[in-house]
Design goal:
Distance between the termini: 38 Å
Order of helices and strands: HHHHHHHHHHHHHHH
Number of helices: 15
Oligomer: single chain
Strand content: under 5%
Shape: elongated
Mean pLDDT: 81
């Protein structure tokens, strides 16, 4: 590795690290504010001498529930409180030892399950109970104070999350949808380039990377749930519901476009391996789909009418029609159909009704000269891969 390459990689690494720090800045500020407030309330207002559980509970609640919904954060608070309460009460009565620890864990887990808690609540209840039962001194000066501290710290964390320094739901959604749409656009561009150069390995690589985008799709779905809840409970962001709606309505159609695109790229791999005819217009059609995805990401982020995304999707269908008219073989015809399906998905993601999207695609397809090749707009001849 030469010095220039090493320098380039170092810059990329530093840039990525700075970006990660910026992305986590609000969390670190939330944690710092919540920890300080929790200590102040427990120590200065409630008079607890060493209320270390208060700031710990605040930070744990924020750290474990990052990117999750408020329900998850509330469960962390409840789990901490349940475990600490059981630990304090039982150890004061039955003393400390191996079987006492086992009893605390048994009761904490079953109580958490009984009240309907998730795995997060169960884990926090058990671990907090163990902490109290094994590490902390038994003294009458601290009767139930640690339980109170845990409730104070967790409650302040929820307050900071919802009211004082709430995450911007739009920012979180944009951050989550970005990798998904980038993966889709890049995969289509790379597949189109591979088709143009007859490179089956490159096309397969594009397909593999698009399959990995399922994790981005799941992250986007979770982010939408969390952001909808945050926009409801955080007064500072009550006005964001309308802007979030565009992403909510686009979510299912983006998922379909990803899966239809994978079918498309898989057939591109087959086209190349089978040495089928590749009209230049078909390559342009796939590039146009990628451009539609990129434009849609930008226009959703800017909260403007996604006109460029719609235009690129329609252009993709027109280019695919030109390729069809020039002559396609079996896998090429599947790619043609998948371009139409994916374009319909992207038009729907851009806010069009089903009727309008299908009408746009039908107009772009026009009259099919070859008999037996006509399919309904948005139709797909094979299942997604």
């Amino acid at each position: 590795m030469d010095a220039a390459e090493l320098g380039r990689r170092t810059r990329i690494t530093l840039r990525d690290r700075v970006r990660r720090v910026r992305g986590s800045l609000i969390l670190s500020v939330q944690a710092a504010v919540a920890a300080g407030l929790a200590w102040y309330v427990a120590h200065n207002l409630l008079g607890h001498y060493q209320p270390f559980f208060a700031p710990i509970a605040a930070v744990v609640t924020l750290a474990i529930s990052v990117g999750q919904r408020m329900r998850r954060a509330a469960e962390i608070v409840a789990g901490n409180a349940v475990g600490i309460l059981l630990g304090e009460l039982l150890i004061l009565v039955i003393g400390r030892g191996a079987w006492q620890v086992s009893l605390v864990v048994l009761l904490a887990i079953n109580l958490a399950i009984f009240i309907g808690g998730s795995a997060s609540l169960v884990t926090q209840a058990a671990s907090s109970g163990i902490l109290v039962a094994t590490l902390l001194p038994i003294t009458s000066d601290y009767y139930l104070s640690r339980f109170v501290d845990a409730v104070v710290g967790g409650g302040i964390a929820l307050l900071v999350m919802a009211l004082l320094l709430p995450l911007n739901p739009l920012t979180e959604v944009k951050r989550a949808v970005g990798p998904l749409m980038d993966s889709l656009a890049d995969g289509l561009h790379h597949a189109a380039d591979a088709l143009a150069h007859g490179d089956a390995a490159a096309a397969q690589d594009a397909l593999d990377r698009m399959r990995e985008a399922e994790s981005h799709l799941r992250a986007f779905g979770e982010s939408l749930k969390a952001s909808k809840e945050l926009a409801t409970i955080a007064p500072l962001h009550w006005g964001k519901h309308g802007l979030l709606q565009a992403y909510i309505e686009a979510a299912d159609h983006l998922a379909r476009s990803l899966r239809n695109s994978r079918v498309l790229v898989r057939r591109i791999v087959s086209m190349i391996r089978d040495r089928e005819t590749v009209p230049a217009a078909l390559v342009e059609a796939v590039h146009a789909l990628a451009q539609s995805v990129s434009s849609l990401r930008r226009e959703l982020a800017d909260a403007v009418e996604p006109e460029q995304a719609a235009q690129a999707a329609v252009r993709a269908v027109r280019e695919a029609r030109e390729a069809h008219q020039a002559g396609l073989e079996f896998s090429g015809e599947v790619v043609f159909a998948q371009v139409r399906s994916t374009a319909t998905d992207l038009l729907r993601a851009a806010g069009m009704s089903r009727e309008d999207a299908e009408r746009q695609v039908r107009r772009a397809v026009g009259r099919i000269d070859h008999p037996g090749t006509s399919r309904s707009a948005g139709g797909s001849p094979e299942k997604s891969g």
